[in-house]
Design brief:
With 273 residues, the chain is of the alpha/beta class. It is built from eleven helices and seven strands. The protein folds into two domains: 50 residues, no CATH class; 217 residues, Glycerol-3-phosphate (1)-acyltransferase (3-Layer(aba) Sandwich).
């Protein structure tokens, strides 16, 4: 996959343009070959930071850990099994990628769809995640191994990064992958649906309009909670308090959630588009 992305015409063109740009401001101690090596390393670093490294052992571990969490923290998780049966039929007959588009109100959103599909014997999605978690040791490895890949909040000013990300997602689409992304872009702090962010959506539709795939199926998912896991922090953030950065220490301290009663969660897989 990495070789395919790095050798795609678009990525190679952006690498050449970046080499030319750097050559115009060339340090006399460097020659063109060294500049090319520098750009190649830059591209490889972007790929390493971005890519998922899915392994079944991580998914199995995630399934076991999340089973404990959900059983301890929720009285009920309500799922319509008729919808699950329709998903099974959709997975079997798909002619292109299937992309889940859940509402986003909690970090639990990242986990619940994967867990449901896992325990119903369906393929777990590759999840398009923000880069917030990349600097958390151990956690990022667990997420990457469970299927997460990572996307900057903006591509502005970095055409090489944009080309690499687009080509990576293009290949995932060609492989008819199961994916997941949050069209709101961030968690809603006020329990209402927010306006859509079109970045990842445009990456996927580009694959369709350029005829890389015959079809793309989007599955909207509504997630409703009687009590949101991190809801206690939302009033402060809505009043202007700075968002707390994610860290390993915060995650460890957050394990006290296992003693909380978060009530009921309702998961509704809507009709595919």
């Amino acid at each position: 996959m990495k070789e395919i992305v790095l050798n795609s015409p678009w990525v190679k063109k952006e690498m050449e343009l970046l080499v030319q740009k750097k050559m115009q401001n060339l340090d006399e101690a460097m020659n063109e070959f060294q500049v090319k090596q520098q750009v190649n390393k830059m591209a490889e670093k972007m790929l390493k930071r971005m890519f998922s490294d899915f392994q079944m052992k991580f998914l199995n571990a995630m399934g076991s850990a999340m089973k404990v969490f959900f059983e301890n923290s929720y009285q009920h998780i309500i799922i319509n099994e008729n919808q699950i049966q329709k998903l099974k039929e959709l997975f079997t007959s798909r002619k292109g990628p299937i992309i889940f588009c859940p509402t986003h109100r909690s970090y639990v959103d990242f986990l619940i769809i994967s867990v449901i599909l896992y325990f119903y014997g369906l393929e777990a999605p590759l999840i398009c995640s923000g880069e917030d978690f990349l600097n958390i040791p151990y956690v990022v490895d667990f997420l990457r191994g469970s299927g997460a890949f990572f996307m900057r909040r903006t591509f502005r000013g970095d055409d090489l990064y944009k080309s690499i990300f687009y080509e990576y997602v293009r290949e995932l689409n060609k492989q008819r992958s199961i994916m997941e992304f949050f069209i709101e872009g961030t968690r809603s702090r006020f329990n209402k649906l927010m306006g859509p962010k079109y970045g990842f959506l445009s990456v996927c539709t580009k694959s369709f309009f350029e005829k890389d795939v015959d079809e793309i199926t989007f599955v909207p998912v509504t997630l409703n909670y009687s009590k949101t896991l991190e809801g206690d922090t939302f009033p402060g953030e809505l009043r202007g308090s700075q968002k707390v950065k994610e860290s390993l220490g915060r995650i460890i301290s957050g394990l006290e959630v296992l003693t909380k009663n978060l009530g009921t969660m309702v998961v509704d897989f809507c009709d595919p588009i």
